[in-house]
């Protein structure tokens, strides 16, 4: 098969992680990649291999896969078949995006949650679930002696990630506790750690404040694996996730997950391998984040309650044997999402398409 992939390659976004599928496919098929221009200054594994794929000569007929959201993507009129790999963080996609997707023959999306959002009568093409994955050479169980019980959360410094909910729940529940800490990995280098935490604190808890550590620099996957290894439990109070790649990477590293009972994470997080924060309310996102992403306007997102986040964090902190048991279950679940297994799903679908166009 001859396949072209267009998308983010050399940055730290979730979309850029799709590159792993096509590196796997290139081991047996002709794969050409055409990277979007956004580049992060971090070390990327297999960098030279990706650069080589930029020069692959394609033969016709070939299949084109382009990743991104509706307004960013265009079909390749030279390709025999065009696939859009896209995702969204809530139950519906913006109506204004639909004409862009109708230019394609097929849509790939990473979760069943996203499939429902795209699988509407106004979209003319089929929708297939091709999940994201993790590198099982990097994200593995690493036992380390830990001085503090550590909650870890990873994500962009935006309201959708629920930092306000998490920080206020944690500081309320563990005030004065010197044996626990919350580690936050994000990528906002414009603010200090203190400024970032104060941005979301709703009351003055500077007295007897529990430990909060913030790493706000972009780092390589290898260093990310070390960050996961320092954690006892991963937590996300997100208002919406298309998939939940950090949750999966944490699970692969033997770190069980607390996460919102909403979105793509439900494909792999459950009460056997983690804890789900109940969702009783849906709300519109803040005006400032809708200015960042106009597609969010007038769409409902989950609103976890601080009391529920506090309750689960306290339970996890006090039931360390259960944390250990769910760690093993988390690893077993994650094993179904290695990049090689995900690429096999993609390959099988591409073979079906290739047989039709030849």
Would you spell out the secondary-structure blueprint of this structure?
Elements: E1 2-7, H1 19-25, E2 30-35, H2 47-53, E3 63-67, E4 81-85, H3 98-101, E5 106-109, H4 112-118, E6 126-129, E7 149-154, H5 163-173, E8 180-185, H6 193-200, E9 211-215, H7 221-229, E10 233-235, H8 245-252, E11 257-260, E12 274-277, E13 282-284, H9 287-292, E14 300-302, H10 306-318, H11 320-334, H12 339-357
Parallel strand pairs: 1-2, 1-3, 3-4, 4-5, 5-6, 7-8, 7-10, 8-9, 10-11, 11-12
Antiparallel strand pairs: 13-14
Helix pairs in contact: 1-12, 5-10, 8-11
Strand percentage lies at 15-25%
Order of helices and strands: EHEHEEHEHEEHEHEHEHEEEHEHHH
Taken together, the total number of domains comes to: 2
In spatial order, strands of the major sheet run 2-1-3-4-5-6
- Report the total helices: 12
Helix residue percentage = 25-40%
- Note the overall shape: globular
What name is given to the CATH topology of the largest domain? Rossmann fold
Give the beta-strand count. Answer: 14
Overall pLDDT score: 92
Distance between the termini: 10 Å
CATH 4th-level superfamily of the largest domain:
Glycogen Phosphorylase B
Characteristics of this structure?
2 domains; alpha/beta; 12 helices; 6-stranded parallel beta sheet; single chain; Rossmann fold; 18% strand; 32% helix
